[in-house]
Model the fold of this input.
Amino acid sequence: MKPPPFAYECPTEVADAVSLLSTHGADARPLAGGQSLVPLLNFRLARPAILVDLNRIAALGQVTVEDGTLRIGAMARQAAVEADPGVARGWPLLTEAIGHIAHPQIRNRGTIGGSLAHNDPAAELPAVMLALDAEMTAQGPAGVRTIQAEEFFAGTMETALAPDELLTEIRVPALPQGTGWGFQEAARRQGDFALVAVAVLLRPSGSGASGIEARVVVTGTGDGPQRMRGAEAVLTERGTGGDAYEEAGDAAADASEPADDPHAPGWYRRKLVAALTRRACRQAATRMGR
Amino acid sequence: MADHGRNVCVTINGEAHERRVEPRLLLSDFMRHEAGLTGTHVGCEHGVCGACTVLLDGDPVRSCLMFAVQADGASIETVESLADGETLHPLQDAFRREHGLQCGYCTPGILMTLKPFLAANPAPSEAEIRKALSGNLCRCTGYQQIVAAVRLAAAMLRGEEP
Done:
């Protein structure tokens, strides 16, 4: 249970970190909060020749709101973002979801960017960032690019980041006035990864029969966060109300194909998808004032 | 490509410990083997059990999920910092009085989790106490006496209990 030997670098600038990653290629791994990577090292499931520690890059730890957009430095600690009053005011879905990540001790070290770049298929943050239409800023040897959440999450523990690219910032756009949100998670124990988690956003919209626009994201059922377009269409068409939530929940369950695993059989997760989607819709509608 | 030495200086319970260490040395092992502070226990070594919880610049963290080199320049508090000589900290006294431990393996991590928790929340509800304890596994007590001990400690720290 001790990590294998590795060389260690702790740059203080993003450019130096990127240059180390590009020099060492697949031998190097960036180290963010370490709450997923260090267990992998201790189990010797990961054996990078060199660790590039990002913890001394002060520029990556900022959390600011600029022109209504939330800008989260990739190394901002989960606990810091959870406790940020500006985040709680403007993006309460994010505050709520962070409270479901593991335990306070983990959130004190764990970072927002680390969780997104790790992309565990049952992690809360990728699902929430997908629901919130976040944009990821990545810096590589060729420069900086922006990746939409939709493209960023590319399957179990896979992202659109190249091996020598670093996630530096997450930008979350402001939610339109009157947006309601819901977040529901079922886990076997407090702090466990989700068996299933559902994030729902309902926002007023000028177009569409019902006057609302819906976003439904489910995670825990497969290879990461999944937008439930069938459920979104039901809500956009039918609006708020028990029947619409019922139908949206069924649509989300129909679109889920969870496999059996030691934590839960697939049929149980599908039932969770339906039930948690219904509950998250109801929460979102209540917060919307409907 | 192993890296055999790096100088670090970690302040533990107010005392500076300067050593040359391998980068892969876990902070938990640095405290126990280099600084000789064996009060911090090592349980699972992959961040699940919480036995190795210490305060890093005031915040509780898993010391098995950090390298000593990362704590260079930081201030750590361990369970050894709680008692004042022979006088137990109210948390320790409350755990003793309420039988909040049996084998005691998990206790140092639990105490270090609770110290900042009670400082931030001096009168927690039972639900809040249980949530605060969710990252610390105890296989002996079933948690009942631990919850009772936290209630007593909170009252003692508020000055309501002797």
In short: The longest helix of chain B spans residues 107-120. Residues 90-157 of chain B form a domain with the DNA polymerase; domain 1 fold (CATH 1.10.150.120). The two ends of chain B are 57 Å apart (CA to CA).
